[in-house]
Amino acid sequence: YPRQHAPETQLSEFDQSMTEAVMGSYTKVLFVRDPFQRLISAYMQSTGGPHRSFSTFVQGVLDRGEHKASLEVKPLVSLCQPCLIQYDYVMMFGFLRQELGHLLHRVGLPKDTHLPEFRDTQGRWTYMWLSEQLFSELSLKQKQQLSHFYRGDLSAFQFSNSLLSD
Q1: What does the buried/exposed string (b/e) look like for 85-103 if buried means 16 or more CB atoms within 10 Å of the residue's CB?
Q2: Nearby residues of 24 by Cβ (< 8 Å), 6 or more positions away
Q3: pTM to 2 decimal places
Protein backbone atom coordinates (compact mmCIF):
# COMPACT_ATOMS: atom_id res chain seq x y z
CA TYR A 1 0.00 0.00 0.00
CA PRO A 2 2.75 2.45 -0.92
CA ARG A 3 0.42 5.23 -2.08
CA GLN A 4 -1.71 5.34 1.02
CA HIS A 5 0.92 4.29 3.54
CA ALA A 6 3.95 6.42 4.28
CA PRO A 7 6.19 5.74 7.33
CA GLU A 8 4.57 8.59 9.24
CA THR A 9 0.99 7.51 8.48
CA GLN A 10 -0.93 6.39 11.54
CA LEU A 11 -3.11 3.32 11.23
CA SER A 12 -5.97 5.29 12.77
CA GLU A 13 -6.01 7.54 9.67
CA PHE A 14 -7.36 4.68 7.51
CA ASP A 15 -10.97 3.60 7.26
CA GLN A 16 -11.85 0.14 8.57
CA SER A 17 -11.51 -1.74 5.26
CA MET A 18 -8.13 -0.15 4.51
CA THR A 19 -6.97 -0.84 8.06
CA GLU A 20 -7.91 -4.51 7.68
CA ALA A 21 -6.16 -4.73 4.30
CA VAL A 22 -2.98 -3.09 5.61
CA MET A 23 -2.92 -5.21 8.78
CA GLY A 24 -3.51 -8.35 6.75
CA SER A 25 -0.47 -7.62 4.58
CA TYR A 26 2.00 -7.64 7.51
CA THR A 27 3.39 -10.32 9.75
CA LYS A 28 2.39 -9.03 13.16
CA VAL A 29 4.69 -9.84 16.07
CA LEU A 30 4.04 -8.87 19.67
CA PHE A 31 6.85 -9.03 22.23
CA VAL A 32 5.54 -9.36 25.77
CA ARG A 33 7.26 -9.19 29.12
CA ASP A 34 6.03 -9.94 32.61
CA PRO A 35 4.37 -6.71 33.81
CA PHE A 36 6.24 -6.83 37.12
CA GLN A 37 9.57 -7.05 35.25
CA ARG A 38 8.50 -4.09 33.11
CA LEU A 39 7.72 -2.20 36.31
CA ILE A 40 11.15 -3.01 37.74
CA SER A 41 12.82 -1.91 34.51
CA ALA A 42 10.93 1.40 34.57
CA TYR A 43 11.93 1.88 38.21
CA MET A 44 15.59 1.17 37.47
CA GLN A 45 15.55 3.66 34.59
CA SER A 46 13.83 6.31 36.70
CA THR A 47 16.33 6.18 39.56
CA GLY A 48 18.75 8.42 37.67
CA GLY A 49 17.19 11.36 39.50
CA PRO A 50 16.45 11.64 43.21
CA HIS A 51 16.49 8.22 44.81
CA ARG A 52 13.15 6.86 45.97
CA SER A 53 12.04 3.49 47.17
CA PHE A 54 10.41 0.95 44.90
CA SER A 55 7.30 1.09 47.07
CA THR A 56 7.06 4.86 46.54
CA PHE A 57 7.56 4.42 42.79
CA VAL A 58 4.81 1.77 42.65
CA GLN A 59 2.45 3.95 44.67
CA GLY A 60 3.00 6.77 42.16
CA VAL A 61 2.10 4.42 39.30
CA LEU A 62 -1.02 3.25 41.13
CA ASP A 63 -2.04 6.81 42.02
CA ARG A 64 -1.74 7.97 38.39
CA GLY A 65 -3.86 5.04 37.23
CA GLU A 66 -3.90 3.10 33.98
CA HIS A 67 -4.99 5.98 31.75
CA LYS A 68 -2.30 8.41 32.95
CA ALA A 69 0.46 5.80 33.30
CA SER A 70 3.65 6.22 31.30
CA LEU A 71 4.24 3.87 28.36
CA GLU A 72 6.88 1.95 30.33
CA VAL A 73 4.39 0.80 32.96
CA LYS A 74 1.08 0.92 31.09
CA PRO A 75 -0.60 -2.50 30.75
CA LEU A 76 0.30 -4.13 27.44
CA VAL A 77 -3.30 -4.92 26.53
CA SER A 78 -4.06 -1.19 26.44
CA LEU A 79 -1.05 -0.54 24.18
CA CYS A 80 -1.14 -3.52 21.82
CA GLN A 81 -4.83 -4.45 21.88
CA PRO A 82 -4.38 -8.22 21.42
CA CYS A 83 -8.15 -8.71 21.45
CA LEU A 84 -8.56 -6.50 18.37
CA ILE A 85 -5.39 -7.30 16.41
CA GLN A 86 -4.74 -10.84 15.25
CA TYR A 87 -1.02 -11.14 15.98
CA ASP A 88 0.78 -13.84 14.03
CA TYR A 89 3.31 -14.36 16.83
CA VAL A 90 3.43 -13.49 20.51
CA MET A 91 6.96 -13.75 21.87
CA MET A 92 7.83 -13.89 25.55
CA PHE A 93 10.95 -12.32 26.98
CA GLY A 94 12.95 -15.07 28.57
CA PHE A 95 12.50 -17.37 25.57
CA LEU A 96 13.69 -15.04 22.81
CA ARG A 97 16.49 -17.25 21.44
CA GLN A 98 14.17 -20.16 20.70
CA GLU A 99 11.24 -18.05 19.58
CA LEU A 100 13.22 -15.71 17.31
CA GLY A 101 14.89 -18.66 15.59
CA HIS A 102 11.48 -20.18 14.93
CA LEU A 103 10.07 -16.83 13.70
CA LEU A 104 12.96 -16.18 11.32
CA HIS A 105 12.53 -19.65 9.86
CA ARG A 106 8.75 -19.15 9.48
CA VAL A 107 9.13 -15.83 7.65
CA GLY A 108 11.60 -17.40 5.24
CA LEU A 109 14.96 -16.06 6.36
CA PRO A 110 17.95 -18.39 5.91
CA LYS A 111 18.74 -20.75 8.78
CA ASP A 112 22.24 -19.30 9.08
CA THR A 113 20.88 -15.80 9.84
CA HIS A 114 22.93 -14.45 12.72
CA LEU A 115 20.94 -13.91 15.89
CA PRO A 116 22.20 -11.61 18.63
CA GLU A 117 23.59 -13.31 21.72
CA PHE A 118 20.95 -13.56 24.44
CA ARG A 119 21.85 -14.11 28.04
CA ASP A 120 18.39 -15.17 29.11
CA THR A 121 19.53 -17.59 31.80
CA GLN A 122 21.80 -15.15 33.61
CA GLY A 123 19.30 -12.33 33.20
CA ARG A 124 16.46 -14.52 34.43
CA TRP A 125 18.29 -15.39 37.67
CA THR A 126 19.20 -11.75 38.28
CA TYR A 127 15.63 -10.61 37.65
CA MET A 128 14.23 -13.36 39.84
CA TRP A 129 16.41 -12.25 42.76
CA LEU A 130 15.73 -8.55 42.17
CA SER A 131 12.00 -9.19 41.72
CA GLU A 132 11.76 -11.01 45.03
CA GLN A 133 13.70 -8.27 46.83
CA LEU A 134 11.58 -5.44 45.42
CA PHE A 135 8.32 -7.37 45.76
CA SER A 136 9.03 -7.82 49.47
CA GLU A 137 9.11 -4.01 49.85
CA LEU A 138 5.47 -3.73 48.80
CA SER A 139 2.51 -3.83 51.16
CA LEU A 140 -0.18 -6.47 50.68
CA LYS A 141 -2.52 -3.70 49.47
CA GLN A 142 0.00 -2.53 46.85
CA LYS A 143 0.48 -6.12 45.64
CA GLN A 144 -3.27 -6.53 45.27
CA GLN A 145 -3.60 -3.17 43.51
CA LEU A 146 -0.79 -4.08 41.08
CA SER A 147 -2.45 -7.41 40.29
CA HIS A 148 -5.64 -5.50 39.56
CA PHE A 149 -3.77 -2.83 37.53
CA TYR A 150 -2.23 -5.56 35.32
CA ARG A 151 -5.22 -7.92 35.34
CA GLY A 152 -5.66 -7.64 31.56
CA ASP A 153 -2.03 -8.59 30.89
CA LEU A 154 -2.17 -11.44 33.38
CA SER A 155 -5.35 -12.77 31.72
CA ALA A 156 -4.20 -12.32 28.12
CA PHE A 157 -0.71 -13.81 28.42
CA GLN A 158 0.78 -16.82 30.19
CA PHE A 159 3.03 -15.23 32.82
CA SER A 160 3.17 -18.40 34.89
CA ASN A 161 6.09 -17.27 37.05
CA SER A 162 4.92 -13.72 37.66
CA LEU A 163 4.84 -12.62 41.27
CA LEU A 164 1.64 -10.76 40.42
CA SER A 165 -0.18 -13.94 39.39
CA ASP A 166 -0.61 -15.03 42.98
Answers
A1: eeeeebbbbbebeebbeeb
A2: none
A3: 0.73
